[in-house]
Amino acid sequence: DILPLDPALSFLLLAMPAFHGGETKILGNWPGYGLWTQGLDMLRAIGLTLKEDRGQVVAIAEKGRGPNVNVTLPVENEALLPLALALAMAALSTGQEVRVRWDGHERLDVNTPAAFLDEAGVVWEREEDEWILSQWSENLEIVPWFAPDAAWSLGYVLASFGRQGLRLSNPISVSTVAPH
Hints:
The protein is of the alpha+beta class. It has helices spanning 7-14, 16-20, 35-45, 81-91, 111-120, 150-162, 172-175; strands at 22-27, 49-53, 56-61, 72-75, 98-102, 122-127, 130-136.
């Protein structure tokens, strides 16, 4: 039997080509609606090519093509916020400002995203429902970050592709959801 996929974790893995090129393939049951559609749209917006087939999704970064930065990433579900911020961080290498907009209906706890960006060394500001990421900080003291769950941990791992030296203080949070 194929297990159903966790959307937040699956999209973080599919985002890897935006950071290092190549492709990532994930096998599993993809429902194709709601959170799944939002996550796939976000990956396409950043410039990944997606191929969907029964039981698998492949994310591909074209050679020589960096992330699309002329985009504001809309987020409607808090589970996709680590993905949106990590994708925005991938685009920082272009030297352009990147925005992530909260379009969700529920009230959002902004403390975790703030800690995520601060500990990764991103210069950012928040205007109403948008995070505006402008550049990597030049003065970063690397301190291991304690991620609250596996999705934030994987998002931080993705951010480390753009900012070497980032470390988690609790990488076990990812292994708790990995198959044994």
